[in-house]
Amino acid sequence: MRNLVRGLVGAVGLVGLLLAAMFLLRTEPAAAKFGLQALGPLGLASLRADMVGLFGAVGILALLGAVHNRGDLLLAPLILIGLALSGRTISLLMTGFSPDLIPPMVVEVVLLAILALGHRVLGRPQA
């Protein structure tokens, strides 16, 4: 069971790093897949900074948690993905239902479930 969870958490980490790389190297096409568009150099810089920061942090910490069997390293990715899902939920409530909003929310719920399972199942550092 623990190895399966480590594999799932590692997959979350790889996906996070892949998304970070996409936003770093192919910013505008990656942004378009998320319904975003940069307005000039500041917009491009903001997309790179914010999206690479978010996905990079989730990816690095999830991979470290999986490789080192450390569930405590998954708390920050849980918070980050949880905040993203909260933002989407608020958007849904404020702007109303749109079918485009549901798939990313489903993905975030699945990511949260995997990370929460990893946080619970994987080891803790010994003091």
Describe what you observe in this structure:
The protein is an all-alpha fold. The chain has helices at residues 2-25, 27-33, 40-67, 75-95, 102-121. The chain has one domain (2-121). The protein contains 5 helices and no strands. Helix 1 (2-25) crosses helix 2 (27-33). The longest helix is centred in the middle third of the chain and has 28 residues, at 40-67.
Helix percent band: over 70%
Rounded radius of gyration (Å): 16 Å
Distance between the termini: 25 Å
**Spans where pLDDT lies below 50 across 5 or more residues:** none
Task: Tell me the number of strands.
Answer: 0
How many independent structural domains?
A: 1
Order of helices and strands: HHHHH
Beta-strand portion reads under 5%
**pLDDT average, as an integer?**
96
Principal-axes geometry comes out as globular
Q: What can be said about the biggest beta sheet?
A: none
**Number of separate helices:** 5
Structural class: mainly alpha
